[in-house]
Each structure stands twice: as structure tokens, then as C-alpha cells.
Here is the input.
Amino acid sequence: MCPPPTPPAPATGTEAERRDAWDKVTGTARYAAEHAPPGCLHAAPVPATIARGRVTAVHADEILRRPGVHAVLSHENAPRLAEADDPTLAVLQNDRVPHRGWYVALVVADTPENARAAADALRVEYAAEDHDAGPADGHPRLRTPEKANGGHPAVRERGDFDAAFATSAFQVDATYTMTALHNHPMEPHASTASWTGGELTVHDSSQGSTTVRDVLAGLFDLPRERVTVVSAHVGGGFGSKGTPRPQVVLAVMAARHTGRPVKLALPRRHLPATVGHRAPTVQRVRIGADAHGAIQALAHEVTTQTSTVAEFVEQAAVPARVMYASPHSRTTHRVVALDVPTPSWMRAPGEASGMYALEAAMDELAVATGLDPVELRLRNDTDREPDSGRPFSSRNLAGCLREGARLFGWKDRDPRPGVRRSGDRLIGTGVASATYPYLVSPSTATAHAAPDGTYAVRLNATDIGTGARTVLAQIAADVLHAPLDSVRVEIGSSALPDAPLAGGSSGTSSWGWAVHRACTVLGDRLRAHSGPLPPEGLSARADTTEEAGKESPYARHAFGAHFAEVEVDAVTGEVRVSRLLGVFAAGRILNPRTARSQFIGGMTMGIGMALTEGSTLDRRYGEFVERDLASYHVPVNADVPSLEAHWLDEDDPHLNPMGSKGIGEIGIVGTAAAVANAVHHAVGARLRDLPLTPDRLLPHLPHLPHLPGRPPLPGRPD
Here is the structure.
């Protein structure tokens, strides 16, 4: 008798190379704007130049006489849309202008150059009205909504915060501010739309083409089966492509109006006004602790803004309901609607903003109590979620803090601020915790076994640069006990089985569960089958609606800890992050190579959040001033000389069959606070307004003797 074949080595847990890497580096991967159907036209949108009012005239006749121009769409002639659940998509439907940058017309021409030139030349007349662009803090129309984003209650109270805070041995009461932040993916938002015999096909730069298909079907009154949306390759999104954006609606409108395919790629300078942004926040944090540093009272009160078009309430106080034991707590959100662009999702919405303020306040509490910042966090660790009382399915925050401290060399740190110096550089170190919720959504998938021994997994997942194709193949290979190279994964089209979008760090958990289930069923059928497979092979389908929809008795979150070292130039005020370390507990890591990429990508964005990324709202016009990558400064290689991501092996049986949590967003959570805390340790002054640019730091820097060959600044004697 022949021995059974040796099963292949496990695929998950290995550093499998990205399956689309070769396509990307050779340029064969096609993005939304790179599809060119025969006869394709090009469109350019026209943004409003007033902050509020209405359009009184669109001089399309002048533009239609230009060579190459095929159409000018405005509220006067654009196709009518059904009512949109998302009001930001109701473009060209009426003459109202809710904010500067709102699209009021669309020019369609034979080349992108002709379209842009004609859009720039189009004369639009307005009746301007008085506008209100804030500021939000102290605004007379501030109100408390019923819900913040994600369905979270806007207000949560436990115990008697006021009394507990008043009697605490140590108190921190600080207010932290952040400007708006912008996603700026490498690939701007783009769509190519074509109609053929009543069937609509769209190539769209989106984080989820199932959602885009459903929205377009509703807006244009079409059955879903007559709409196909393809998002095969997407050059980043960071939340800004998590929902359909105006460019896809405009492209479909123009294609219907002209009867020809139409391509529309938004200019980068339009993105801040049209595709969402992280809302600016003012956050007051109050923490009261007893003589041993145990938190007795915690309040996190958030003020933010939204637009008059749609309400978006950044859920920045929600992390304070998760992180630390606190018998008395108050967490609130207030919002005001202004005549400004609509905020939206950006990597780790709520957590990124809220954990900056909370972890900076924890650092201030460590100073007040005289405790080491790591020790303070360990003393306030908890095995139950404070807000819900549910036990955590796993919570290895303490392990992340201890391992991070060991790897970073934290025990050698001099706790005194402003004492470490190398020449005219002040050196400091800081720490911050991180958390992000475990999220999962229903998904479907199919798995197929062919007679030649290969397998195909199909579902409408989206790979926005995370390596989804690779990880899903690894999951399938392990369930089928098959070699990894025998598994083909098809994703990125709404013609495939429905799947949720890539967002909320939920992609792998949601898609992987459906793939795991489909491959499990297929494996059972293969084992029950005798003889050769039929020519058509065998297939299986899975739908995880029931499993993913069940409410868990556990609070499920990923956790992490960030350790930062910074150097502050005492002459120029420039801050450099010389070391940044992140240690995470995020379930089972399915592919260390792609996981590390996600962790350090988030950490890099956190550096930008702390030091370089600032957005100025010009209140005279209600628009953001920094509208390109020359003025909106994201970190570059020189800004991140040493960046390391590590993780703990975590076995959590209360998640999904793979035991995985999300990793796409926890890397950014806490990074900005760790950097800001390190800056305080370096200079001895607490700055609470991000970003920490040189102009903000200079007034707080000591008068240090200058180095030879470096003249002192005026007013700074030797």
C-alpha cells in the first residue's frame, strides 16, 4: 500500500510574496483611469468659486463652440438622479452651492487637455450668500447629536464623574486640537464609465465595488444585474474611497448623456473639497487618579464640525470607553454644521484622533503622579471593557507595553525632561498605547476544484495595496491542504460574489471567513467524491451572514504600544523621529510580510499626523488652502530613518476561523501621541496642538549655546 501523500507546509503564517507585485512593477496592472474603451471621451469637473449661494447662469454655449468639446453638463441639463442616501453624490441636481469646491458643471471633450482647458474657461455666475466657516469651538449652533459615526451613542456616562474628579489626588485637565487631515492616496479618484445596450460598466478607484454598484443602480434606477463595477487595482484609499465619490456619478452621467464611454480623473487639488477628510477636533480630556495612579475619573469631550450637506461626527471619544479602567466616566461629542466640505472616513477614524488626546493626557498624568509612563498604563489595565462590562476576547496591551519597553531600551530612560542633548539637538522619548476594534461583515465566496488539480476562489474583495489576493490564497491553500501556487484568486469585480468593502480593518476577517467556509465545504465534497473529477470540476459557495451577524459576548479589539525617540533642533525647531517602534497584539498574523507593511504604513502616517500634516481652513472662503503635495506635507523616506514593527503571537478563539484581527489601522493609532510625548520629554514644554511644526516649537526652546560655524539666532545670545 502506498503511503498517503505528504500534505504541503502551511501557507498562512509565511511571508508569501504579493501575487500582484510583478504586474505592478511591470506596469501591466490596470487602474481605473488606464482603461480606454473605443471612442472614450474625457471629462473635467468645474468646482464652485463661492462659499455659499446658488448658480444663476452657466455659459455653456461659449464652451460648446471650442474644438473638441462634446458636452457641458450642469443642473440645467444633467441626467436626473434618484434620491441619494449620501447627499454628497447629488451632483448637478439643483442650483445650490453648499460650499466652495462643490461641483457645478462638467465639461466633456475629446482629450483630457481640451476638457481641462474648457472647464477652466467656463463662465459660471452666482448669487453669493453669507457663509459660516466657523470655528466650531464655542459656536452658538453647537449641538449634541444622538449618534457619532459607527452608530456609537454620542454621550456615555458612568458613575459620578464630577464628584470623583474633584476628590482625586492627581488631576489632569487639558485641551488638544488637531487640524483637518487629508487622505491623498497616490492614485487620485478616477472612473471610466460606458453604457452598452442598457448595461453599465464602470472601472472605479474604490475600496468596495459591490457598494458602488448598488449605489449606482439606485441613483440611475437600474437593476443591480445590469451594473458591473470593476476595481481590480486601487492605488490607496485610506478611507477616502470607502464610499462612492462624485467622480463616479459624474462619469456615468456624462456617458449616458453623450452615448460614449467617459473617463474622469479628479485633479489632486480637488480632493480636499470633494472626497472627505479627517475632521478637525477640539478635545478636552480630564483624568483624576488616586495616590497610586489608579484612574478614578475620566472625561473625554470632543467638539468637531461637519457640513450642511451631510452629517459626519468623528467618534473621537469612543476609544476612552475602551482603554483604561475608570469607575467614573463621561464621554461626549458635539458638532456644528458649517458651510465647508463634508468630512468623512480616514484611516482609523475616531481612534487616530481620540487616542492622540487620551494618550497625551496619560503622559501628563504620568508627570503629575511621578510614575513611569509605561507603569502608569500597566496600573490601569483592565480585563473588561469599561463601557460595556464585557470581558475582552483577548487583551495583550500589557504584553505590548512590556515587550516594547524591552526592545526599545526604555528602562535606561532618564525621566527628567529637557536634559538629553547632543550638540544643539534635544533628545526625548515617549510612549503611547493603541487600540482598534475588531470588525467583521457578512461576505460570500465560491471555491472551485478543477480536474487538473488547481483551485479557484472568487469573491468581490478589493486589494487596495494590502496584499488581499495573497492572503486569501494562503487561507484557501491551508483549508484545501493544497500547494499555494495551485490556488487562483479572482477579486475586484461586482460580477463576482458579493463581499464588503476594504475598510475598518475588516477586510481579511470578513473575506477570509467566507473563503475559509467555501473551501471547507469544497474539501468535504472532494473527500466524498470517488474517481476522477468531472470535466466541469466541483464547486462550493459560502455566505457568512449568519455567523458574522451574531453579537459576541466578548469585547474584541486589537491593541498595541508605540515607542518614539525624537531629536529637536534647538536652533530651527525642526523635529526628527530618530526611532519609532510599534509592538502589536492583533490576533494571528497570516502573512508577516504584508502585515509588517501595513503596520509601518500606519506608523508613517502617524508621524505625518504629529509633525507635518496640517490643513488650514481659510474662513473667508470656506476652503482648505493646502491642496497639493507641495503644500500638504506627508512624510518621506528621510523622515523615517528607523521604523520597526513587531507583534505578539496571539491565540484568540472568539474571532473567526483564522483567528485574525485587523491590522490596517492600528499602526496609526497612538503614533502621534508617542511622538508628541517624546517632544515634551525632549524640550520640557507641552504642546497640545498638532502638527508640531517648527513655528510652534521655537517659542518654547531654550537658549542653547550655538555650535561653531552656526550663528545664533537674533535674540539668542551665546
About this structure: The two ends are 90 Å apart (CA to CA). The chain is about 25% helix and 25% strand.
